[in-house]
């Protein structure tokens, strides 16, 4: 298994885990479940960890595929820039989640505010996750690129 393969294996986790974490946090707030909130924080932390792995394999994956037929440098660069922004935001979400997990565990008075703040920050992070994922997919899937023949433009 080379770096390109590893990148493809791990790059989905930093996107999927915060989505599931978001849903768990919403459920935890609605049902007033500390277990769900803590589990959501755990998923955000795990997502940040997988971001480290995916980001760490990205450069080597680029080196492997950049000279393959049909690979355009423009799409590699766009993805790299989107992934970098997403990575830093994902790390931030992981750090906020460590603080949130601690605050909930210690029953700090401001833990409820932090839960809401993290929830909104997660929406912001997920926007950039979508950008990183889409630009990564566009590298090898021209059918998802804007302007593709047959594109209905409803994105």
Q: Overall mean pLDDT score? A: 95
Helix content: over 70%
CA-to-CA gap between the ends?
Answer: 34 Å
Q: Order of helices and strands, N to C?
A: HHHHH
Task: Classify the secondary structure makeup into a structural class.
Answer: mainly alpha
Principal-axes geometry comes out as elongated
* Gyration radius, rounded: 18 Å
Number of separate strands: 0
Biggest pleated-sheet summary: none
Number of helices: 5
Count of discrete domains: 1
| Percent of sequence in beta strands | under 5%
- Would you identify the regions where 5 or more consecutive residues have pLDDT less than 50? none
Question: How is the topology of this model organized?
Answer:
Blueprint: H1 3-10, H2 13-30, H3 34-65, H4 73-105, H5 111-140
Helix pairs in contact: 1-3, 2-3, 2-5, 3-4, 4-5
Please explain how this structure is put together:
This protein has helices at residues 3-10, 13-30, 34-65, 73-105, 111-140. The protein has 155 residues and is mainly alpha-helical. It has one domain. Helix 3 runs antiparallel to helix 4 (73-105). The chain starts with a helix and ends in a 15-residue tail after the last helix. The model has no long low-confidence stretch (mean pLDDT 95).
């Amino acid at each position: 298994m080379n770096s390109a393969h590893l990148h493809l294996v791990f790059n989905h986790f930093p996107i999927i885990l915060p989505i599931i974490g978001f849903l768990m946090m919403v459920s935890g707030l609605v049902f007033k479940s500390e277990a769900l909130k803590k589990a959501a924080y755990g998923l955000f932390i795990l997502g940040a960890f997988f971001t480290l792995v995916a980001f760490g394999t990205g450069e080597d994956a680029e080196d492997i595929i950049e000279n393959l037929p049909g690979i355009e440098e423009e799409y590699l660069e766009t993805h790299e820039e989107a992934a970098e922004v997403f990575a830093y935001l994902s790390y931030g979400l992981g750090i906020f989640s460590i603080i949130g997990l601690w605050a909930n565990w210690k029953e700090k008075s401001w833990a409820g505010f932090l839960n809401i703040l993290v929830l909104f920050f997660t929406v912001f992070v997920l926007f950039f996750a979508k950008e990183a994922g889409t630009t990564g997919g566009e590298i090898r899937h021209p059918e998802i690129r804007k302007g593709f023949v047959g594109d209905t433009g409803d994105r």
